[in-house]
Every structure is written in structure tokens, then in C-alpha cells.
Amino acid sequence: MTTESTLPPSPGHLSSTAGPAHGLTSLASARGASDRPVLPALRSVPARSVASPLVAVDCTAVLLAAMLLAEPQRHVWFLAQLTISVLALNAYAGLHRPAAISSVLDELPALATRALVAWCAAAAVLAAYAPAQAIALPALGAAYGTHLAVVCLCRGMIHGRRRRAARAHPRSALVVGAHPAARRLATALAQHPEYGIRPVGIVGPRKSGAAPEDGLALLPVLSSPEEVHRAIIQNTVREAVFVGDDVPGQTGLVSLLQYYGCATWRIGDAAGDAGRRPAMNEHLWGYACRRITPVRPRRGRTAKRLLDIAGAGLMLAVAAPVLLVCAAAVRLSDGPGVLFRQERVGQHGRLFTLLKFRTLRPSDETESATRWSVANDSRMSPVGRFLRRSSLDELPQLWNVLRGDMSLVGPRPERPFFVAKFSRIHTGYAARHRMPVGLTGLAQVHGLRGDTSIEDRCRFDNHYIDTWSLWQDICILLRTAASLVRPAGS
Description:
Number of domains: 3
Mean pLDDT: 77
Membrane topology: Multi-pass membrane protein
Main location: membrane
Largest sheet: 7 strands, mixed
Number of strands: 11
Low-confidence stretches: 1-48, 270-275
Pfam families: Bac_transf (PF02397)
Family: Belongs to the bacterial sugar transferase family.
Radius of gyration: 29 Å
Protein name: Transferase
Structural class: alpha/beta
């Protein structure tokens, strides 16, 4: 897509109807700001410092309890088996990832049950393989009681310290949801600092003319990814809380916030649908709360890059005669300037220069950067029309793939002007830049090329990223090759 024709210039950034809460940085965008794309800067999710101490507590409790056993019963393999069992059972139950408000009393049944299973299993294995060293029932009970006492004492100290630190240094958070439910939750969190969460903004639709309700938090409303990005940077946001049951319908926004490095939570009835009921301490001021597990990047990105290098190199070698013919045709038909260069937005918002065969000559750089391409532009020569229809004008982008600017498969790159515009209009559009942009993609093999729905393309692109595999890339390449037999334009 090289020229644009239908979309009007981007409007100024929206301003928040609600002013910032006292002491908070204003999150509203300034009117007249640049239309440069505001995209997430890659940031890793901060590690939860509480997990390591709790693992250390489990190991320490096993060692101290084992001191009550006779010397022959304290074999290294016995202690190793017991330690691994305790750690595995507690990790599987989520006991190394405490809830917002953790209490030893709430955790005691789960801790006691899993410790009992681990000790009984280890003692049974020892009795089966070394009957002479079997642990007597009183000694086993004493060791188990010591283990449980150490765990409860140490976890109580850790939880108490964590609550004090959370109250003293609350983490900035965004509340995502519809008014007024989001404001009610934000107000509750602001009034109860023991949860360690300080709301700094509400992400949701902006209600024009809505009067602020008495008793509810007066926070800025963020209605575009650009405003969300600015809020995260200005306030060092680390948490995002989703209100309501429509979290599955907000996958793009969840992915975007996780990509920024925010821990994401959901509250309400949907919090209990993940296979088990929330525990008593899994709540935020009475709202059932459940963490949304982030989608981890799948392995194989090195293999994807190797596929890009091998595929692009091979295709450049095979298509060299075609490239020469296309270049000569453009030169003879449209004059000097065979290649068209244009700034596009790549992975993580990085800009790069995309190469294409020129299919028409725009009047100036502003036109090519801010006008939408159409298949039957009257200024397009027959050669340009054929190149566009057959997608041969995209062949020079194989050089972009070799350079590492692009991948063979990924979301199609767009110009900065339209990335900024679409990011404001379509939730999750900026999240499609989590992976390298590509020559072709899942949206393209489903016919979403040229002047088609941006919302549909965005949905396909994010689905591709969330379900990425090397085999999926190969399938998309094969389907793209098959579609070239029946070209439909770009």
C-alpha cells in the first residue's frame, strides 16, 4: 500500500473529561500532539520478590524437621525427595504466588494437607526400600508438626512484611472497565491502601456530559492506547485490574497491558471460572479476584529467523530474473526511480524503510505517508497496475527480511500516521507490534488485503501472535504461494 486517498487527517488527541485525582500526574493527551505512533516499549514483567523467600521457607522447614529424625533416616535422597515433593505440591497449588491479601490462617489447610502428603509419601518410600530405617509414627508426627510450625511462622513474617511494604509503597494501577463499576472499584482501592494498589486512571469509553458521582474517585479516563501508554510511562504503572465479565472479549487490551509489563487481574463473577472457586483471601475489598496468566512467548523464534534468512535468500536467488524484468518495466513505463521507499513501523514500534517497486508517483512525501492506497488509482500505469495486482511490487521486501527489518510471516507493516490513527480507534492495534512485521500474514491469507476492515486485520494479527508456531508460519507461506496463482490485488 503506497498511496492514500480516503481517510481524513487524524484529529487531535482526546482530552479527558475528568481531571486527575489529587497528587496524580495528568494522564490526558495534549491537543495537537504529533501523530507519531505511540507504541509500547518492551519491558519485562517485574519478578515477584515474594516467590523466592517462600521457596526458601519450604526448604528450610524440611531441613529443620528432618533434624528430629534419627541419623540413618536422614539420607540425602530422602531429603531431596521430600523437598521436591513439598515444592512441587505448593507450586501447583499457587502457594508461592500469594493473593492480594495473604494470611497464614487462610493458607493453613492447603499447607497442612500438602505437607502431610509429602511426608507420608517420603516415609512410605523409605519403608519400602529400607525397612530397617522406617520412621516410627511418633517421630513422623513430630517432624511433620515441626515442618508445619516453621512454615507458618516464616510465612506469617513474610506476609506481614509484604503488607507493610505494600501500604507504604503502593503500586500504580489502571482500572479497566465501564463506568461506574470501574470508578467504584477505583474508589475502594484508593480508600483501602492495605491492598498495595493505587489507581491512577480508568481505561474505558469516555462518557460525554457525565457528571461526577459523589463519593467516587475522580480519575482521568483513558480511551486510547496512546493515553494508556502515556499513563504507564508517567506513573510507572505495574498493575491493571479488569472489571466485569467481558475480559475474554478484551484479549487485545490484556495482551497490550501485559506487554507493557503490567500484572493483569480480573474481578467479578468471571474471576471464578478458571476451574476452581477463588479462595477466601483472593479478593479486593470483597471483589473476587484472579490473576490473568500472561501468554508466554513460545520457543522457536530463532528457528523463525533462520526460516526467514533461508526463505528470503532462496526466493531472492530464484526471483532475480523476475526482479530485473520488473525493474526494467517500471523504468521504461514510469521513468527514473524504480524503487519506492517508505517509512513503516516494525516490531516494538521501531521505524524502518520499506522497499517496493514503484507503481505510481505520489505528488509529495506527505501524500504517500497519509493517503490510503486504492486498487484503481487513475495515476497508476498499466505496468504499475499489473505489479500491484500480482503482488510483484512486494518482491523487494525480501531484502527487508534479510536485513531483519521484517519476517516472511507476520502482521503487515503500516505507516506511522496510520499506526497512530488506528491505535486510537481499534483496541489492541498497537499490540500487533509484539512480533516482527511480515511480507504476508494470517489476515492476508484470509483475504484481508488492500481496502479491507482494519478491525478484522487487527483481530487476525493478534490471534496469529497469541497462537504462533513455526508450522503455522510454513502453512501461511504455502497458502500465500497458492493465492499467487489467483491474484486479487494488494
